[in-house]
Write a structure and sequence with these properties.
Layout (H helix, E strand, L loop, with lengths): L4 H5 L3 E3 L2 E3 L3 E3 L8 H10 L4 E8 L24 E6 L3 H14 L3 E6 L4 H4 L11 H14 L4 E8 L4 H13 L4 E8 L10 H10 L4 E4 L5 H11 L3 E4 L1 H5 L3 H7 L7 H16 L2 H15 L6 H10 L3 H11 L17
Parallel strand pairs: 3-4, 3-10, 4-5, 5-6, 6-7, 7-8, 8-9, 9-10
Antiparallel strand pairs: 1-2
Flavin mononucleotide binds next to strand 4 and helix 9.
């Protein structure tokens, strides 16, 4: 019997004491998964959860959401919004998680995946996979501090050894994690080599909590293959969610957003950004977004270059209108792999 992707994606999934209605989720992405982008995504729908940008556990307890760069949200998204935190001290992480629970987020996600030098030098993110005891202690301390779902995002580790990832997954479960998002790549290689999806299957086999598979899912067929080949409970979408924010609705609900979706998405994001950010911050985020979104177009580099050169949001809007004066030629599928 043919696998019915939409039916699978619409099967509710229990996470901790809560349930999500759909199984595609937005992966956490710094400078991309911000509040304005999430509001844009909500307009399309089709997802079960959204993850925030990575937020520092050190600053969260006292942070003012109106002026914070990352710890920002709309109250209406709290029922399906997970706040991702990074840090290395269990007590501080627990304190941050308490604030996240008090604010009403769906859950808290702990970053054990980011391999950027600036993060790992402080022993945050993927660096903690070299210190499994500390990583597990962080999860256990957060678990004791909050009753909302505690999620963990991690990658294979620093060596291409699936056994280490499996052992880590078991430790996270034992420490009280309610779900895992697993990106099967080794830390230093970033996205240069393909992810080893078979490791997702091994992690899934090793634990009884839900596992979201992640890495290089760019079309519905990839999504189907990842689910069938690994048995994962859901899929976390990163870069393709930026290039095509309607994919959640398309794959889960069969929604066809129509030919105006490319132009409309750029216009909508430009309109939403100033609700959350001052002009320089909004421009920075629009530039970053365009880097990924431009991959949709045969001459996307033109759009990208012009947006980089624009000096204000108004100029960016003018660039967008100019680009769509005659319908741009689309790439059959956006080439995401040259983008980190
Ligand atoms: C620009 C960018 C920023 C990212 N920021 C984060 C982050 O803050 N936290 C995190 O756990 N992963 C982060 N990631 C990793 C993604 O969540 C995801 O694991 C990765 O992009 C692979 O998924 P994909 O192939 O669907 O893009 C980031 C990825 C990108 C491209």
């Amino acid at each position: 019997m043919e696998f019915d992707l939409a039916a699978f994606l619409n099967r509710p999934l229990g996470i901790g004491g809560k349930t999500i209605a759909k199984r595609l989720v937005l992966a956490p992405m710094t400078y991309l998964g911000h509040a304005a982008f999430r509001e844009l995504l909500e307009g399309f729908g089709g997802f079960g959860l959204l993850f925030s940008e990575m937020c520092s556990a050190r600053t969260i307890p006292t942070e003012n959401r109106r002026v914070s760069a990352f710890f920002k949200w709309r109250d209406a998204e709290l029922p399906f919004l997970v706040c991702q935190i990074m840090g290395a001290e269990p007590e501080r992480m627990a304190e941050a998680a308490r604030r996240i629970a008090d604010e009403g987020f769906f859950g808290v996600d702990v970053n054990f995946g980011c391999a950027a030098g600036s993060i790992c030098r402080r022993s945050y993110g993927a660096a903690l996979l070299k210190a499994p005891e500390t990583a597990a202690a962080i999860v256990a301390r957060i678990r004791r501090a909050v009753s909302i779902p505690v999620l963990v995002k991690f990658r294979t580790g620093w060596e291409d050894r699936p056994a280490a990832a499996v052992a880590m997954a078991r430790r996270f479960e034992a420490a009280g994690a309610d779900a895992l998002t697993f990106h099967p790549r080794v830390a230093p290689d970033r996205r240069a080599r393909p992810p080893r999806w078979e490791y997702i299957g091994r992690v899934k086999q090793a634990v009884s909590i839900p596992v979201f598979g992640n890495g290089d899912v760019f079309d519905a067929d990839d999504c189907r293959r990842m689910i069938l080949s690994t048995g994962c409970d859901g899929v976390a979408l990163g870069r393709i969610a930026v290039a095509r924010p309607w994919v959640f609705a398309e794959w889960s609900d069969g929604v066809d957003p129509g030919p105006g979706r490319f132009h409309g998405t750029l216009q909508r994001l430009l309109a939403l950004l100033p609700h959350y950010f001052d002009e320089p911050a909004a421009m920075r985020r629009f530039r970053r977004f365009t880097l990924y979104f431009a991959a949709n177009f045969r001459f996307g580099h033109t759009l990208h270059r012009r947006i980089q050169g624009a000096g204000s949001l108004a100029q960016m809007a003018a660039v967008v209108e100019g680009f769509f004066e005659s319908p741009p030629e689309l790439n059959p599928a956006p080439n995401m792999n040259f983008l980190q």
